[in-house]
Amino acid sequence: MELINIKNASYSYEQGKLALNNVNLSIKAGEKVAILGANGAGKSTLFQMFNGLLTPAKGTVTVDGLETTKKNLLKIRSNVGMIFQDSDDQLFNSTVHQEIAYGLMNMGVKGEELEENIKWALKAAGIEGYEDRSPFNLSGGEKKRVALASVLSMKPKVLVLDEPTAALDPRGVSQIVTLLNKINEELGITLIFATHDVDIVPLIADKVYLLNKGEVVLEGTTKEVFSNKKVIRDIGLRLPRVAHLAEILARDGFINIANGELPLTIGQIRRILEENN
């Protein structure tokens, strides 16, 4: 079932800068979608349209059957949870418990139901036992989990994440990738994320949109998009490092790659190396 539909959407800022130009995008419930593009490609503007923070000058944005008009924004925003690039921009309460409770209380949830939802969100984000800790004394990865828990507590249908692995160490990146896949698989929540870390895209996404100067220049499965090497490089992006390594090894005659499909993960290149030995 289609959950988000953006049709012929364009948007310009007051200075006259065209941020999005005739963008078409369709996301089904349960999908994991990466939005890729260089700085200034329009990713942030597009993300603000998913929950009606911005509305297109032309075209339409529909979320779960509701167009992002003023009368529908409350319902849409309850279904679309936003996770900012910098968790410090999202956290402002003195304890993790208060942080998670804040959105729920604004929705009128209280008493036993409030505590049950907080407990569930802590478990879902993997931070049980953090209730009385200050969000500001946590590591970057822990802050990401608190931000996730605060949004998950409201049971959204969609999570929109801007640079979910930004400023995390390798272990933190691995943990967040695992957590996001778990949230999608176990809770059925649709994931939409933007990232400059193309190495994580094959580990999460099953669908990719490439943006360049406000336009969608390529869309498809992760494998389909990363097979278009020229397009990716022409807009200032790169292949995942595993794919680039395989490209070099194949060029120099060390391996043969069936059908020319570059591996995108360590597991995939391991199988190719085993087949070539």
Summarize the structure.
The protein is α/β, with parallel strands linked by helices and about 280 residues long. Helix content is about 40%, strand content about 20%.
Unreliable stretches (pLDDT < 50, length at least 5) are none
Strand content: 15-25%
From the N-terminal CA to the C-terminal CA, the straight-line distance is: 44 Å
Order of helices and strands, N to C?
EEEHEEHEHHHEHEHEEHHHH
Mean pLDDT: 93
Oligomeric composition of the shown chains: single chain
Shape: globular
- Give the strand tally: 10
The neighbouring-strand order within the major sheet is 6-7-8-3-9-10
Largest sheet: 6 strands, mixed
Structural class of the secondary elements? alpha/beta
| SS field, number of helical segments | 11
Radius of gyration: 20 Å
Can you characterise this structure?
There is one protein chain. The protein has 277 residues and is α/β, with parallel strands linked by helices. The protein is built from eleven helices and ten strands. It has a six-stranded mixed β-sheet with strand order 6-7-8-3-9-10, sandwiched between helices.
Secondary-structure topology with pairs:
Layout: E1 2-12, E2 18-28, E3 32-36, H1 43-49, E4 58-63, E5 66-67, H2 73-79, E6 80-83, H3 96-106, H4 111-124, H5 140-152, E7 158-162, H6 170-187, E8 190-194, H7 201-204, E9 207-212, E10 215-220, H8 222-226, H9 229-234, H10 241-251, H11 266-275
Parallel strand pairs: 3-8, 3-9, 6-7, 7-8
Antiparallel strand pairs: 1-2, 1-4, 4-5, 9-10
